[in-house]
Amino acid sequence: MDNWKFFDITHREHVVCNPTSEEKLARMVKLLRLPDDAQVVDIACGKGEFLIRLAEVYRVRGIGVDLSPFFTAEAHKRLDARAPGASITFTEMDGSDFEPDEPHSLDLASCIGASWVFGGHARTLDALAGMVKPGGWVIAGEPYWLKEPSQDYLEAAEVAREDFGSHASNAQAGEQRGLDLVHTIVSSLDDWDRYEGLQWYAADEYARSHPDDPDLAEVVERVRGAKAAYLRWGRDTLGWAIYMFRARPAGQ
Predict the structure, then answer these.
(1) With contact defined as beta carbons under 8 Å apart, do 142 and 241 qualify?
(2) Contact 189, 235 (CB under 8 A)
(3) For residue 116, what are the contacts with CB-CB under 8 A and spacing of at least 6?
(4) Is the CB of residue 20 less than 8 Å from the CB of residue 50?
(5) CB count in 10 Å sphere of residue 135
(6) Phi, psi angles (nearest 5°) of residue 181
(7) Exposed (0-12), middle (13-18) or buried (19+): which is 161, by Cβ within 10 Å?
């Protein structure tokens, strides 16, 4: 089935499409203290919640980029309902194709939970760092291993050991690229349980209301497998954090 349809089904109950609570997202938005007319981009923006919250708190000019036509359409609806006059646009495109009008010109560039767009956490930081001006924000959301993953979990989750590093290595990757880590937003087990559990709930609701969908069996099977892997291994093995970096001034 179409992957974007699958993610639309399983994330229908989510406001934030990653293991971060709304309270923690609000805290991060407050800490950014963006200037008027700040230029921002959010790569793989999902339903646009981060950008919309920025527009509700600050006067920003921004672009949200996502490959999902479902999420892009939802982002437009939410923006029209909550910040209709904001200078925010949402575009359906591959985030790796995005380039600002000029390098090092943005006040903030983010990619929260989609480092696969650029080929991993380090390359994501390289890409985002090339977009922001000195003192600008680079915001990256990335999983990390809480402990050494079992081979059974890697196979069940269809991930490789080298796909993720540690919490410390995620932070160090930014420091090695001229970025200063100034804060982290670390997810709790409750944040993870909400993120995963809402997917189970949404899939169940969809199955009850769309029994004739030819893709339903695949949706149910994929969610069942992900649920089993999370409960048996993932909950104790994989962590998540949003890393708030600032680009150092030239010469530092």
Answers:
(1) yes
(2) yes
(3) none
(4) no
(5) 11
(6) -75, 120
(7) exposed
In the block, tokens 């089993």 appear at 228
Under a CB-based contact definition with an 8 Å cutoff, are residues 110 and 140 in contact?
yes
Query: 3-state DSSP call for residue 8?
Result: helix
Domains and CATH numbers, the chain: 15-188+239-247 (3.40.50.150)
Q: How far apart are CA 103 and CA 225, in angstroms?
A: 43
Please give the C-alpha separations between residue 240 and each of 67, 149, 213, 214, in angstroms, as whole numbers: 22, 15, 33, 34
**The token pair that represents 110 in the structure block:** 């983010």
Question: Which amino acid, residue 58?
Answer: Y
**120, containing H or E segment:** none
Instruction: Please give the single-letter amino acid code of residue 249.
Output: P
Each residue's pLDDT, cut to its tens digit, for the chain (252 residues) gives 999 999 999 999 999 999 999 999 999 999 999 999 999 999 999 999 999 999 999 999 999 999 999 999 999 999 999 999 999 999 999 999 999 999 999 999 999 999 999 999 999 999 999 999 999 999 999 999 999 999 999 999 999 999 999 999 999 999 999 999 999 999 999 999 999 999 999 999 999 999 999 999 999 999 999 999 999 999 999 999 999 999 998 756
